[in-house]
Amino acid sequence: MPSTCPPRRPSPVPCSLLGALLAASATLAGGAARAQPVTVPSTPAPAAPVADPATAPPQTLERVEIRASRQGADDTEQRRQSSAAKIVIGREEIERMGDSTLGEVLQRLPGVTTEGAPGRGGRVRMRGMGNGYTQILVNGERPPAGFSVEQLTPEQVERIEVLRAPTAEYGAQAIAGTINIVLREDLRQRLNQITLTLGHDSDHGQPELGWNRADQLDALSYQVSGHYAHRTSRQRSSTHSRTVEQDLGTGAETTTFDQIDDSLTQTTSDRLHLGSRLQWRLGPGSSFTLAPFVMLAHSQTLGQERRSRLSGSDGSASDYASALSEGNARYTMGRLQSTWQTRLPQGSRLELRARVHRSLYDAHTERAESDRSASALRSLEDRVSLRDTGWSTGGKLQHALLGDDGEGHELALGWELETDRRDDRRSNIECGSGGSCQSLDTDLGDNQHARVQRSALWAQDEWALNPQWSVMGGLRWEEIRTRSEAGDSRIEHRSAVTTPLLHAVWRPGQRSKDQVRMSLTRSYRAPSLNQLTTSRAIASRYPVGADGTGGNQPGSPDQAGNPDLEPELATGVDLAFEHYLARGGVLSASVFHRRITGLMRSVVTLQDVGYASVQRWVSRPENIGTARTSGIELDGKFRLAELMDEAPPLDLRGNLGLYRSRVDGIDGPDNRIDQQPDWSAQLGADYRLRSLPLTLGGSVTLSSDYAVQLSNSRRSEFDSKRVIDVYGLWRFSPAVQLRVGASNLAPRDYTSGSLVRTIASDGSVRTDRSSGSTAPGLTAWNLRLEMKL
Q1: Closest-CA residue to 583 (of 68, 44, 83)
Q2: Containing H/E element for 603?
Q3: pLDDT value at position 268?
Q4: Residue 136's closest CA among 99, 162, 100, 169?
Q5: What region holds the TonB-dependent receptor-like beta-barrel domain (predicted)?
Q6: Please, what are the domains in the chain?
Q7: Which residues have C-beta within 8 Å of that of residue 750, sequence separation ≥ 6?
Q8: How far apart are CA 120 and CA 131, in angstroms?
Q9: For the segment 52-69, what is each residue's pLDDT rounded down to a tens digit?
Q10: What is the pTM of this model?
Q11: Which of residues 177 and 536 earns the better pLDDT score?
């Protein structure tokens, strides 16, 4: 049968599916008794004479197979048609494991790792780079200050887009890449869904309740959602601190300090999300949308610590043997977003958006320390109040330019303006064993007021040169202005970056299943507000006395900002080969390289300070020089039946990333970018039973152990990670299904440590080593019932 797809622009519907649907439609129109093969001609055919039923030859009913497109295939098609390298994760993959938070979903994505102990979530990193290298967006916009992916549930998310190179539209603060979280917004389908989840973790129940409703009333479409979760987590950890002094002349070593701290922390939290999306159709191609969202959260933390002093003293202010702590925190956040879209003459489209938000965070912590005879030594009370208020606005104008050959440009122009204000107030009170109390507040930044304004202009052109080549070029200008006041200190900081970006895709032929991607980009990493402010945070273990005396150790430095920091700039090259399979599968191999100038890193030095009469060790961020990072990434997903005949109904997916980096000016061999592992990998499988409405699956996520040489005298070490997750899904009907999942099977200890080596004035070498071990968390189980009413 001849192809029914247009010759130049690939149809979003696969040719085989489109042809099958047309054939089926013609067959059904002809009647079941007289069905015959159908060929769709390009021009109308002349009318055929009507055959006499008595003399007509016998007809045979040919089998026409209609194969519905799976969502996974649609996600793969979006990836294939994208001008920039992009991996699309749809609802099917997001819901697969029955995760409670979006952070648990993200740690299984290709090239994505998380900080901290395995199986417990953490800040997200792409290509092993975090702390500002990885950009997180929600619906293509920067989220408000204080946002965390742990605040979102999988039910709220429609899809996740992983972009490995920056684009002009999404922003250039993405040296490692961008993760764009697209919230559910399909208001055309009627939905009334309830989700009941009962989990078990840390010997406690973890109930959750979710509700999602969508409907349409004339020109108004709406979606309302709510989610409540109660959680209890428990974590044990142990830290071994040891100080050794070595005489360089004799080589003799003396242990001057040896101590073990054991802690147990239990956190109980309640979280409520309420959101809505209201969309009015104003006419053909025109709509207005309002999206309010409210989040309420409360947590209580109880902590116990026990200290075993093996030898010596570290000179800290409190030589306690045990400590008890209790803390309470409340977080409230409200956000209102609006979007207006309209169609203009000559194929143009205009989108205007605005957002306002406000968040409040209040925390109160009390801590009591005792000696070995259980007598009180001192107590500490800490209060924190944070207020974040902000607004943003932006717009995008798109215009299609069609050439004489049918190919064309998609030209887009955009602008963004965002302002955030943060008020930070802290109060610290210390009481001694005799009952006397003193305030530890200083004029060094306990109360801080900051304002950050970001503005951007960008232009982007997607151009289909011919059926084999398509390119996307972009140019983005972005400016960040920061103003901060803390005590008597005031700073103003401005940085502006212009970033050109170019992406290209080459296909050997219009119907080829292979394609090659190339990107040449400029990106950057801006310093954070805390890195810029001149406020100081004094090491809690080594406070400054009322008379200004009291030193500290290089392993416990004071923290200070640097208003002279400049952004890191990176030039990047990406090259990828992709092979697409017939049933929605894909295999990909890619390489990347980034050259970073103005690398920011905290440098610890002994210096004179205005708040103490003695010199103290201070950690301050500085631009230290140049760094390079490169890597190879492999990823794929496919049905086993795509590779071998008569294969079981097994879906496979996996990815592997190999990373290398080097920071100039620091001795090797581990002079890498901070917290970048040598490799990370993930392998998953899903098996659909033919005899039962049951699907079984699981995944294994791994990353290597590694060490980071932060400077010639400071070093950090991190353990390897392994997370095993499994699930089972039973579909009672299209409207009811039950999901059982287990996360972090076979947990194990996770260790990390640091080493600081300094040379004393007498020529001896002092080595401070701290090794921390986090006990494995228990396996988390959950039972999840999903019902569509």
Answers
A1: 68
A2: strand 586-607
A3: 96
A4: 162
A5: 315-745
A6: 1-42+60-68 (no CATH), 191-259+267-308+320-788 (2.40.170.20)
A7: 117, 118, 719, 721, 773, 774, 776
A8: 18
A9: 444 444 444 443 333 334
A10: 0.85
A11: 177
